[in-house]
Structure formats: structure tokens, C-alpha cells
Amino acid sequence: MTRVRAVNITKRYEAVAAVNSINLEAEDGTFVTLLGPSGCGKSTTLKVIAGLIYPDEGEIYFDDRNVTELPPDKRNIGFVFQRIALFPHMNVQKNIAFGLRMKHRPKEEIERKIKEVLYIVHLEGFEKRMPSQLSGGQAQRIEIARVLATDPDILLFDEPLSNIDAKLRDELKYEIRRIQRETGKTMIYVTHDQAEAFAISDKIYVMNNGSIEQIGTPVELYVNPVTPFVASFIGSNNFLKGRILDLNPSTKVARVSSDGMDIEAPYSNGLRVNDQVLVCIRPEDISVIGEGERSKYNNVVQGKIGESVFTGLLTRLNVNVEGTLLKIDVQGSERFSYLNVKGKEVLLGFNRCSLITGATEIPA
Amino acid sequence: MNRRTSSLLTSSAAYLYLVICCAVLLLPFIVTLVRSVSVAQPDGTVVFSLAPYGEIYQHFWPKVNTSLQIALFTIVIDTVIGIPASYALTRYEFRGKKSLFALLNGVWYVPGVCYAMALVLAYYFVYKFFLGFWGFVAAYSCGFLFLMLLTCMVAFRHFDPRYEEAALCLGAGRLRTFLHVTLPLIGPGVTAGILLTFVLSFNEFITALLLTGPTRLKTAPLAVYSDIRMFGVRETVAAEATVLQLISLIVVVLYLKFIGTRYLRGVILI
After folding, report:
1. Is the pLDDT of residue A57 over 90?
2. In which band, very low, low, confident or very high, does the pLDDT at A249 lie, cut at 50, 70 and 90?
3. Within a 13 Å sphere around the CA of A218, how many CA atoms are in the beta-carbon half?
4. pLDDT tier at B268, thresholds 50, 70, 90
């Protein structure tokens, strides 16, 4: 049980800062995820925490211990790699025993530990297999077992599921979460997959271009993205440029004018009338409504359906509203009624939307 | 002609080609072997006999022994220098790395006699204390170090650093990571280097010919050469040549059988 803190970490490669003055904190026994597109510096951050990369600036603390100068073998961490790093010349048993042997543990303890961790990852009886005889999912579980065997204070995962096929990936992510709950260890997890991050994390750091864009729980990030990047990276969003018309401090609702539409949106303090904002509306928050349902929605606009795409789980409609294309996801049994509806005039209603201030460019 | 006949013809032609290639490669060896066991009797008839091998035992085996020892020490020195050096060359970036690679590859194209000439000059004028057996070991260690470097570098390039990172994170220090993880995994590359170094230093002739003056040492290939000059192509000389070839052949065959060829391919950089 250890609290991890990274303070002002910067790592440059030649002149480019891969990680730029990042602060990160993982409380005792929590599951923290670094989420971002490839090349955003999340793996570098993780390797700095592990000690595999030495930062140009900043410090790493485990509890109140400054470990910045310690090599990885002195940090008592477990690191699960993106590509399976089981030693190919050792069988499962020897792989798991490796860390314990390096710590000069007695033979009986090593044997007991091997049994214990294989039980945790549900792969009892695999002791004699060679890594080449394991499937991708099994190998990744053995890798987790090998890391658990050394009883590390902190577990670090560098996109451990990205090379595993989709179905198994789904299973394994819950398994990692289960192991985290059962062992109560602090875990820091790196991924570019938003769904994966949402399914397992207590707290998510969204990273882009070497910096942290937003920190929050999955719900906070989803409902209230504070930067255009977060709004577009997490889920999908409709972005509308707008200007604040007026603010109602008692209800905390702002009225925004955008391309001839009047939109009501909740806001937090710090906004003034005439501020430029981006309005974000999630496609799944917009409904196609009937004339009689107008009163149920704060915002109602009229549009003409363009293309529609059926993806199985939902039907995505592109609706032209006053020259702006809005993406709308129709879910439930309704989704079958919008397969051939090009050119149809519809009413759209939505209650939930969010405002991003300080940015006027619509993210690509 | 139907397709079956034509395919039969094609495969026979390919087979014949293979046989011709093998024959061209093996012919000199076979001729030497046959000559070494053909002993002319006083009455002019030629009979099969293993007697030449007995005859050379006395004076030729010590030379073989010397050559084996030189090869062995060369291997040890080149391995000890070559592994860390090739690790550094593969893993770390520094100015002039590309030029160094070019230079290493360039060693292939330096004529042996030029290299030997340089060594002879060096031994006569600089390393006078270095004559004899150790002079040979030093010369061969220098001359064949690049082979060890090339094979080890190929091995290190195939070796993913994540295994080392994993070992470090599991609590193994740098040295133990190297001994328990890195070395076993690059093993085949190292052995390929060892094999090449053995074959070349055991059979090396040009440098030996020029070095035998200052070092006053005669290796096995030199012994064969001087015996040819002294006695002509006699059956005992053929027997000496056969022994040398057999030793190399056996070592290579054993290597290929037990260790494999994975790291012998592509021993060229850049």
C-alpha cells in the first residue's frame, strides 16, 4: 500500500519535451489511469515512475520517500509491459520465481508464492509450460502473476492489453480490476483505449502532447470535459462555436447563441456575457422528438436528416441544422426506424450539453 | 510433354545442379583425402593405407595443438572484449557510430597480406617483448575481433530491451540481469562469433606466414605449407591437410547440429 506522487516531471528527447512538467498522484490502493493518444507521453511518464527512464526534471515519491535516484530494481515495483516480456528461455515456474530468486527468498516460500499467484490469475497447473506454449491472454496473465509474486508496492501497466484480441481484452481488463480490488495495491495503468480506462479506473489523467489535459473520475470526464481535446477524445461530441447571451446565476444556466440557435447550457463560475465558448453536445444526448414533446427539452431545434449509418448497437444520423451538421445516435428499438430516412425533417431535443471556455477552435 | 513429365524434368535439373555445386565444393577435399590414403609401394603399385596418418603423428600433432591453443585464447579474448563492446555499440548512440560501422565492415575488404604486413612491422619495431605464442594470440584477437563484434551486434539487435527492463523491474540488478537474462538470450549470436573466430584463426595462413619470422612459432597450416615445399605433395602432407579440414568440418557440423544457424545469417551491418 503506497501512495505515488510524481512532481513536475519533465523528460525531453533532444529538444522535444515528451513529458512536460507533469504532476500526478495515486492514493493508496487506488487504480489510476493515464489515458491519451499514442505519443502523448503516457508511457514515458509510467517508465519514469518505474525508474526505467530518468527524468530531466522533477521528483518521484513513494509515500514520503523520494525515489527519483533509485534504479528500478530498488523500487519494489511491478511492471507489466505492452508486449509480453516473459523470459523465453524459462518456463512459467522459473519466470515467476525470477523476482523472488533475485530477492534471495527461501525455496519453500518461492514454491508457495508460485502456487498462490497462479491461483490468483486462474492458471493453476501451468508451471512447466514455456512462454511459447501460452496464448496471448495466458501469457499476459502469467506476466501479471510474475509481477504479483514479488509483492510489489505498486503495479504499473503499460498498455498490457493492446496486443490481445478484443474479446479476451474485455475479460482481462475486469480481471486486472478484480486483482486490484483483491490485493488492494496501488496501480497505475496506461492506455489509449477510453472504454478500457472507464471500465477499470478510480481516477483518470487525460494526457495530450506531454501534458495533462484533465483529471477526473470517468463520469466527470464524460459529463464535463474542460478542454476541446478531452471532449473529442472521450466519446464523440458535436462542437458548436457560440457566444454567451446571458447568464442566470441562480439556476447556473447560460444562454448561448450559436449559428442562429439559442442553446441553454449549465455553466460554472468564471463566465461573462459575450464570452466565446464551445458548446459540446454528445450524439447520444440528442433525441429525435415529436411535436408534443417540446416541453420536455430545454433545447429544441429543427433539422433535415442527411446520411444515416446503422452500426448494430445504434443508428448514427447526420442532421443538418441551420447549416450545421449534428451527429445523433439513436439507440434502443427506435434505431431500426431510421434506416432510410434521408431528407426527412425532424425535431431534435436535448437537455445535456457542456461549455468549454478559452477555446474557440473546433477540434479536428 | 505433359505437366508431370515437365515437372519431373525440372526437379531433376535442379537436383543435378545441386550435385554439381556440391561436387565443385567438395572435390578438392575428396582429392586430398584420396591422396592421403594412397600409398605407393616400392614395386610401383598404389595401395590403400592409413600409415601416413601414423607417420605425421609425431611432428604434426604438436603443431595442431599449438593452433588449437591459439584459437582457444583468441576466442576467449574476443568474447570478453566483443560482448560488452557490441552491447555498447548496439544500445548507445554516439557521434561517429555510423563511421565506426563502416570501418568494421571495411575490415572484410582489407587484404590479409596487408594486415599481416602491418603486424610484422609492428612486431619487429614496437612489440618486441610480445613475440612467440602470445604474439599470435594478440594478432588474431585483433584481426578477428570484428567478426565477434558483428555476430554479437546482430544478436543484440534481435534482442528486445524489454526483457532487460522486465528483469530490472523484478529486482535484478544490472549484472544479474545480464547474466540471467541477456546472456542466455544472445547466446546463439555469441556462439556464432565463436565458431567463425575458431574456424578462421585455426586455419589462418597469410598472417602466420609473415609472423613466423618474428615470433619463431609454427602453426599447423604453416607446417602443411612448409612440408609441401620440402617434400612435395606426398601422402603424409595430404594427411596433414585432411586432418586440418576434418577438425574444422567437425566443429562446424557439431555447431550447426546443436546450436543452429539463426544468428549466422545476415552478419552484415547497415
Report:
1. yes
2. confident
3. 14
4. very low
CATH number, domain of B211, equals 1.10.3720.10
Write out pLDDT tens, residues A79-119. Answer: 999 888 999 889 999 999 999 999 899 999 999 999 999 98
CATH topology for the A236-357 domain? OB fold (Dihydrolipoamide Acetyltransferase, E2P) (2.40.50)
Task: Note whether ipTM > 0.90 here.
Answer: no
Interface test with B, best of A48, A67, A79, A102 (most B CBs within 10 A): A102
Q: How many structural domains is chain B composed of?
A: 1
Q: Name the burial class of residue A202, with classes exposed (0-12), middle (13-18) and buried (19+) by CB atoms within 10 angstroms of its CB.
A: middle
CB < 8 Å from A in window 140-179 of B: 160, 162-163, 165-174, 176
For residue B172, the distance in angstroms to the closest alpha carbon of chain A comes to 6
Q: Which residue has the cell 555498447?
A: B88
Burial class of B156 by CB neighbour count within 10 A (0 to 12, 13 to 18, 19+): buried
Domains A4-225 and A236-357 share a fold: no
Does residue A24 contact residue A45 with C-beta atoms inside 8 Å? Answer: yes
Tell the CATH topology of A4-225.
Answer: Rossmann fold (3.40.50)
Q: How confident is the model at residue B126 (pLDDT cuts 50, 70, 90)?
A: low
The pLDDT score that the predictor gives to residue A198 is: 93
Tell which A residues from 46 to 105 touch B, by Cβ distance under 8 Å: 50-52, 71-73, 76-79, 81, 83, 85, 87-89, 98-99, 102-103
